[in-house]
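EI: anyone free to look at a 109-residue chain?
SC: sure, send it
EI:
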Amino acid sequence: MRKMTLGKFIAKRRKYMRLTQEELANKIHVSKSAIAKWETDAGIPERDNLQRLAKAINVSVDDLHRIIGTEGVEDIDYEVNITPEVIAVLESYGYKVIRPETEGKNDME
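SC: here you go
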């Protein structure tokens, strides 16, 4: 069974709360197209928007992070190398990146 994507979760919560994309966008001070982009998994909200989104749809930021962190787990190709530039961008948005070369070093000390 595939896990629900963040986009599908946002759309489902928005509809459950009987909000249009435009109404949700107005609540969190973003454009309607930003909501559409997130709901179609064409992007993820930046940290500040993620916090406002969580509040608007009555879930915790941790819940949203769990969804982001588990999307498509079954399909992960563990051989893919993420460039330092991609890591820098993720970290600039406030995400914690566990670098393979540092993973487990603290366990050995």
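EI: Residues 6-16 form the longest helix (11 residues).
SC: 👍
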